[in-house]
Write a structure and sequence with these properties.
A 6-stranded antiparallel sheet has the order 1-2-3-4-6-5, with helices on one face. It has a 5-stranded parallel sheet with strand order 12-13-11-14-15, sandwiched between helices. The chain has a two-stranded antiparallel ribbon with strand order 7-10. The chain is elongated. The protein has 3 domains: 84 residues, Phosphorylase Kinase, domain 1; 218 residues, Alpha-Beta Complex (Aminoglycoside 3'-phosphotransferase, Chain: A, domain 2), CATH 3.90.1200.10; 205 residues, 3-Layer(aba) Sandwich (Rossmann fold). Helices cover 50% and strands 15% of the residues. The protein starts with a strand and ends with a helix. α5 packs antiparallel against α6. It is α/β, with parallel strands linked by helices. β1 and β2 form a beta hairpin. The protein has 19 helices and 15 strands.
Length: 515
């Protein structure tokens, strides 16, 4: 095909066509009505062209040049085209990934661009509503309904059922998380369709094209949701490293404190939208659609599993290494660590490392103090779980009533309850207690450390099982606790006689196996 003396390329989709001529691209909209978009009249097509230019100039003002008329033989406008600066195909992000190009700088620049775009994006009460939990749940449910209608022979039923179960559980317990996102004005008029195919990495910075313009409500979304779309696409291209780097940089530039669970959930949501599209293509006879649907569903499941919000109880008698295991588990899982030993002293007005020795059941270890400590521990855990943070609770957990209250908190926040009981021969535990007490006397009462009783107390415990800590338990107290402990058959026993890394690996394997 020739336009004058210039070669022309044509690229066509079910809703339009793009004519590539010289340094220009001309986008034509077909006169179709697909329900979710309606280009059936010339005025509708003109409005859609103008809207496309207006919205896409937000991220690529020098690419979207305007709207041109198509004239009939009498010189009267009969249709319209979006006029664009033609982008170099070899600079598509998808093409650069295929070529194995180094992309660290481009990913960083893209994250900065998106964060700046979101910072200045339109916000309103109407927009904010679309980023809420109920709106997101409605979109999930619509996808489930559509997939269920056309997925026979495409998706194995157990895969579909697990996606639906995990999605509903996450959303059910996270009202506080989504409410906080809305209050923080994290919901914006974004891009809505951010994929690697539509990103061009130029020498003077990235250009992001083709935002979703036919339905405003689908473009009104949490900024992290917008970013997660591209992260999902990068992972689908086999570059999970770029996906993680992109979201890390986006969080840095946007100052977004979102918990890891929300990041995982939005990636899963975007992957399942692609599952839906692939299932619809399969129903229409599309080649390779079934394998695509399964691949996207597997991607969604990986992130739904990784984003499962958990309440993890790590218990056991004094000297068994439960605090070491709890700290290292929190570090590995990106969870918040709450310690009963530290919280007990905080409630008593004491620095965590200050000794407060007492006989079993006396001092700050009376039944009243115990009840107050566990009640506050579970209160803080419940707030964190509702905000999407997994929580590791380091305590002895010898009372069945306390464990029942923990289970109730997990159920109320639709969080997965995991219970570990550290086990160690009594003689070995007594040796560790003796070493810890000796180390504590050497450190002195002024050796205070950060409290693990608040939401900021995530991270590893570098202290080994015999190191000084906030515990005041003696071997005699350990013996009394053992005699007084309620059975805990539902807990997974974790032997702690070996290196701490072995106990952590055993616990992580138990969590993975349960998932």
């Amino acid at each position: 095909m020739i336009a004058g003396d210039r070669p022309m390329e044509l690229r066509e989709t079910h809703i339009g066509a793009v004519f590539l001529v010289g340094d220009r691209a001309y986008k034509f909209k077909k006169p179709v009505d697909l329900g979710f978009l309606d280009f059936s009249t010339r005025q509708r097509r003109l409005d859609a062209c103008r809207r496309e230019v207006e919205l896409n100039r937000r991220l690529a003002p020098d690419v979207y040049l305007g709207v041109a008329d198509v004239s009939d033989e009498h010189g009267r406008p009969c249709d319209h085209l979006v006029v664009m600066r033609r982008m170099p195909q070899q600079r598509r992000l998808s093409a650069l990934i295929a070529d194995g190009a180094a992309l660290d700088g481009q990913i960083r620049a893209l994250a900065r661009l998106l964060a700046a775009f979101h910072a200045g994006a339109l916000r309103s009460e109407q927009i904010t509503e679309q980023g809420g939990r109920d709106a997101l749940a409605a979109r999930w449910e619509a996808s489930f309904e559509q997939v269920q209608r056309v997925a026979t022979g495409v998706l194995p039923a157990p895969m579909f059922d697990e996606v639906r179960l995990r999605t509903r559980a996450f959303l059910a317990g996270r009202a506080a998380l989504f409410g906080a996102r809305q209050a923080q004005r994290r919901v914006v008029d974004g891009h809505g369709d951010l994929i690697a195919e539509d990103v061009f990495c130029l020498d003077d910075g990235p250009r992001v094209l083709d935002c979703l313009e036919f339905d405003d409500r689908l473009r009104w979304l949490d900024g992290l949701d917008d970013a997660a779309f591209l992260a999902m696409d990068l992972e689908h291209y086999g570059r999970s490293d770029l996906a993680e780097a992109f979201l890390d940089r986006y969080a840095e530039f946007s100052g977004d404190p979102a918990p890891p669970s929300l990041r995982h959930h939005y990636i899963a949501y975007r992957a399942f939208v692609r599952t839906k599209v692939a299932c619809l293509r399969h129903a229409q006879g599309g080649d390779g659609a079934r394998s695509q649907a399964i691949a996207y569903t597997e991607l969604a499941l990986r992130h739904l599993r990784a984003g499962t919000v958990r309440l993890i109880l790590v218990g056991g008698l004094p000297g068994t290494g439960k605090s070491t295991l709890a700290g290292q588990l929190a570090d590995r899982l990106g969870a918040v660590l709450l310690s009963s030993d530290r919280l007990r002293k905080e409630l008593a007005g004491l620095p965590p490392q200050t000794p407060a020795p007492a006989e079993y059941g006396a001092g700050i270890y009376t039944s009243e103090h115990n009840q107050r400590c566990y009640a506050e521990l579970l209160h803080r855990a419940g707030e964190l779980l509702g905000r999407g943070e997994s929580v590791v609770l380091d305590a002895s957990w010898i009372r069945g009533a306390d464990r029942a209250r923990a289970a109730a908190v997990a159920a109320a926040t639709s969080s997965e309850l995991v219970s570990f009981r550290c086990t160690l021969p009594a003689a070995t535990a007594a040796e560790r207690i003796a070493r810890r007490m000796a180390a504590g006397r050497g450190a002195g009462p002024s050796s205070t450390g950060p409290s693990s009783s608040g939401p900021s107390s995530s991270g590893p415990s570098s202290a080994g099982p015999s190191s000084a800590g906030p515990s005041d338990a003696t071997s005699a107290i350990a013996t009394a606790m053992s005699a007084d402990a309620d059975p805990w058959p539902e807990a997974t026993p974790i032997p702690t006689s070996g290196p701490p890394a072995e106990a952590v690996a055993t616990a992580l394997a138990a969590i993975t196996g349960a998932t």
